[in-house]
UniProtKB/TrEMBL annotation:
It comes from Pseudonocardia sulfidoxydans NBRC 16205. Keywords: DNA-binding, Phosphoprotein, Transcription, Transcription regulation. Pfam families: GerE (PF00196), Response_reg (PF00072). The gene is devR. PANTHER family: TRANSCRIPTIONAL REGULATORY PROTEIN NARL-RELATED, TWO-COMPONENT RESPONSE REGULATOR. One of its GO terms (molecular function) is DNA binding. SUPFAM superfamilies: C-terminal effector domain of the bipartite response regulators (SSF46894), CheY-like (SSF52172). Residues 4-121 form the Response regulatory domain. CDD domains: LuxR_C_like (cd06170), REC_NarL-like (cd17535). This is DNA-binding response regulator. Residues 146-211 form the HTH luxR-type domain. InterPro entries: CheY-like_superfamily (IPR011006), NreC/VraR/RcsB-like_REC (IPR058245), Sig_transdc_resp-reg_C-effctor (IPR016032), Sig_transdc_resp-reg_receiver (IPR001789), Tscrpt_reg_LuxR_C (IPR000792), WalR-like (IPR039420). Gene3D superfamilies: 3.40.50.2300. The modification 4-aspartylphosphate is found at residue 55. One of its GO terms (biological process) is phosphorelay signal transduction system.
Length: 214
């Protein structure tokens, strides 16, 4: 059977490189691509790929959020392979919480990426068992376990929440995190929705209480 794959990365040259690599394999077919989280959320349910390769960091969101959303809205849900340039414990935690089946650095060898796609398509996992057990332990005993709303925030949303608590405006947060002001506004709207707040002042008070409880 042919394995259908969807690619999400904001760099066109990266998408082209991955597509060329995978399509040299007779059992793998690229069925769609996207450069932003919004494009991916619109296209993935339509093409229903077996595997979705998702960049962790995107201009309008994060691959972890895309993973969580498409796995809950697409039938059958794709196996999600998170691809990132950075080794980040928070991103790994978020990926596992979102239901990702694999997590690889972009420095991975081409043959290993091909093997990863086949492993995920067959129902396997590429998440290190030790990392998974640490996440489960963190859920049992860490602060995130006390409030599932906070556990649902992406790593970037948590960083922005902390900066809101510091009194920063969207423009200042954008300068701090090298994001467009509009992108920050989208993050703020998302985290307010996830936390159940309507105003950023409520989020700031919430974040301060979390800090005090540590």
């Amino acid at each position: 059977m042919t394995i259908s794959v969807f690619l999400l990365d904001d760099h066109e040259i990266v998408r082209r490189g991955i597509a060329q690599l995978l399509e040299t394999e007779t059992d793998i077919e690229i069925v769609g691509e996207a450069a932003t989280a919004a494009q991916a959320l619109a296209r993935i349910p339509a093409v229903r790929p077996d595997v979705a390769i998702l960049d962790v960091r995107l201009p309008d969101g994060e691959g972890v959020s895309v993973c969580r959303d498409v796995r809950s809205s697409t039938t059958p849900p794709p196996a999600c392979l998170m691809l990132t340039s950075f080794s980040d414990d928070e991103a790994l935690f978020g990926a596992i919480m979102a239901g990702a089946s694999g997590y690889l650095l972009k420095q991975v060898a081409g043959t290993d990426l091909v093997g990863a796609v086949r492993t995920l398509a067959a129902g396997g996992s590429l998440l290190d068992p030790k990392a998974t057990s640490l996440v489960l332990e963190r859920l049992r005993h860490g602060k995130e376990a006390e409030d599932p709303r906070y556990a649902g925030l992406s790593p970037q949303e948590r960083r922005i929440l902390d900066l809101i608590a510091d009194g920063m405006t969207n423009r200042q947060i954008g300068a701090e995190l090298y994001l467009a002001e509009k992108t920050v506004k989208n993050y703020v709207s998302s985290l307010l929705h996830k936390l159940g707040f309507s105003r950023r002042t409520e989020a700031a008070v919430y974040a301060e209480r979390r800090r005090s409880a540590r």
